[in-house]
Design a protein that fits this description.
With 236 residues, the chain is α/β, with parallel strands linked by helices. It has 2 domains: 183 residues, Vaccinia Virus protein VP39 (Rossmann fold), CATH 3.40.50.150; 44 residues, no CATH class. Helix content is 32%, strand content 32%. Bound molecules: S-adenosylmethionine.
């Protein structure tokens, strides 16, 4: 499981690195409230989304393969006074250690793109489907980059936050982004593997989901072929 060690290496500065990513939090909290909970978050990371969901009073089961990220999430839940509502479990999102059935499974911040192949993504979607009560929902976001984005960022170290640098190396043929992150001595590189919109629809159909909505951003504007894709899927 290569992503495990990679995220362990950046767990201590993942939150400062992702500080500017706030637009998705309210969206997922609203979905959690509407579901009534409990919610399973696949690839929960440091609890960036799970802790606000718990603060809204909804129980979250968070699964992640990185003990380092889960350690940061545990501290965040304690600091927010929501330890009782945040249940963190070490495991792989393709085979989540979750015997419970829930009304909502989420996988925010493009985490499904850590699945290398289309068939691995299908395994992950089927795993999410298996956790849902009848009529339950799976909500996640991914991206497919534009040519402009690739041209603007390819192969250049950019200071994303003070003292935290990021470099994107795009392989359009393989549809893989190698993202390197560096802070002081610590550095890591992980890969994200994107797909087209129709390919995602095919995976979701094969995983026994109806797609209720597809948004292009967290303000719920309809998806119109831009980079970001947010899928709201109902278990058939
Ligand atoms: C971009 S972070 C997202 C964290 C969190 N959901 C958020 O929105 O900030 C991706 C997370 O996916 C986790 N991850 C990667 N591959 C995984 C796998 N196969 N099973 C479980 N977690 C995985 C990493 O450890 C990391 O915490």
């Amino acid at each position: 499981m290569p992503s495990l060690a990679l995220y362990d290496r950046i767990a201590s500065f993942y939150d400062p690195w992702s500080r500017s990513v706030t637009e998705d939090v309210g969206f997922y909290v609203e979905r959690a409230l509407a579901s009534g909970g409990p919610v399973v978050e696949l690839a929960v990371g440091t609890g960036r989304i799970a802790v606000p969901i718990a603060r809204a009073g909804i129980r979250v089961i968070g699964v992640d393969s990185s003990p380092g990220m889960l350690g940061v999430a545990r501290v965040a839940a304690e600091s927010a006074g929501v330890t009782e509502l945040v249940d963190l479990r070490l495991g792989d999102l393709r085979d989540p250690p979750v015997p419970e059935d829930v009304p909502l499974v989420i996988c925010p911040f493009r985490s499904l793109l850590h699945m290398e192949t289309e068939s691995e993504k299908l395994v992950a979607a089927r795993a999410a489907r298996s956790l849902l009560v009848p009529g339950g929902h799976f909500v996640f976001d991914v991206f497919s980059p534009s040519r402009e984005d690739i041209e603007e960022t390819d192969g250049r170290w950019l200071e994303r936050e003070p003292g935290i640098f990021e470099r994107a190396d795009w392989d359009e043929g393989a549809r893989t982004l190698s993202l390197s992150i560096r802070s002081g001595e610590a550095t890591t590189t992980f890969e994200l593997h994107w797909l087209s919109f129709p390919e995602w629809l095919r995976i979701l159909d094969a995983a026994d989901f109806d797609v209720d909505a597809t948004y292009g951003w967290f303000d719920r504007r309809p998806y119109d072929g831009e980079e970001d894709m947010i899928f709201v899927c109902a278990a058939r």
